[in-house]
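FORM 12-B: Structure-to-Sequence Request
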């Protein structure tokens, strides 16, 4: 299950909106988004209720940079194994809730950095 935060209220949409504020040598926006996504990936890895028999699902839970250039940045928060949706649907993971919290925090980060860069 790859939850990529792609809805209009998602972190991806907010990051796209923030493209105007991405400074190629500054990195405040991008570094902040990645720090947030990495922190929430760690939260999922540390709080799930499934048995970590192989370690594959836990290792595949991460923040991944998908596209990055001087004026565009896209990162995903994902559980990369095919069976992740099964685990989440059965209540062994709070991944969707974690994604929602990450999106909210990223929205606040984007707004804060945007304000600083506009002044």
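FORM 12-B RESPONSE
SEQUENCE OUT:
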């Amino acid at each position: 299950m790859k939850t990529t935060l792609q809805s209009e209220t998602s972190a991806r949409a907010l990051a796209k909106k923030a493209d105007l504020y991405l400074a190629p040598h500054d990195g405040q926006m991008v570094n902040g988004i990645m720090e947030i996504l990495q922190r929430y990936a760690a939260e999922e890895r540390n709080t799930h209720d499934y048995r970590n028999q192989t370690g594959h699902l836990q290792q595949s839970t991460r923040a991944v940079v998908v596209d990055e250039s001087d004026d565009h940045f896209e990162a995903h928060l994902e559980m990369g194994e095919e069976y992740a949706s099964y685990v989440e649907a059965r209540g062994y993971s709070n991944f969707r809730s974690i994604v929602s919290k990450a999106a909210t925090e990223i929205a606040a980060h984007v707004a804060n950095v945007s304000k600083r860069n506009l002044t």
